[in-house]
Amino acid sequence: MKKLIVLAMLVAIATTGVSARSSRAARNGRTSNGGRSIHALGFAVPLRWQSWEGLADYDEMDLSAVGFNLMYHHLNIRPSRFSTFLDLQMGYINFSIDEINGQKENDAGTSWKDLYGNLNGFNTHYAFGLGGAPIVADRLTLAIHGTFGIHFAIASGSTSGWYSESISNAEMNSTAWGFWTTLGANIDASWRITNHVGVFAGIDMHTNLVGIGMFAANLGSYSYSEVYRINPGDFNVDFRVGVAFTY
Fold first, then answer.
1. Segment 57-116, tens digit of pLDDT
2. In angstroms, rounded to a whole number, what is the distance separating the alpha carbons of residues 193 and 242?
3. Contacting residues for 56 by C-beta, under 8 A, at least 6 apart
4. 180, 228 Cβ separation under 8 angstroms
């Protein structure tokens, strides 16, 4: 993931020189330096890593997730090249519990994923950003922003045939939900094929800021639930592609 951050920084540096050429082209009449509004519809693949710390028992869970979302993205560029964006996503997400209290499995040698199952469900997020557009050429638009996001996810899973010394052939049912905020940076790029229609691609890299979650498990007569704090600092990334409508 560190490589992605370094790549983003290199892209930002490289676009500085391209922006200068774009500006000279604008003065020669080969490109537009006016405002631009781009609406993109498409898909996003969010990748998540989170650390949850229990508020009562102080146990800690490390989770990872991958999703597939429908996306609406609006990029607005002013004549000064100051730019803003709004990003809305919703769709499917799959969570897995990777570690609990630093352990990848329980005392019997069963991984937490096998114990609690895959947690499948729904996720949505709202994000916006402020930044600038170093490239506003006739066909190509590229903008870079600082971002703030608000996220929500809920997922559940089950495993059968679970057993212990006192329980056999039981079904484990698990549920998790989380609400959290993020802070990061993104890159938006659009290429016009016709006057108004083209393709859009973007990448959003961010870290968890603050959040709260809950995890509950039910195994026959035994049930467990805990409220967690979603700790800051873990890295996340969204990849976005779609159809762009430019005006």
1. 778 999 999 999 999 999 999 999 999 999 999 999 999 999 999 888 877 777 888 778
2. 13
3. 226, 227
4. no
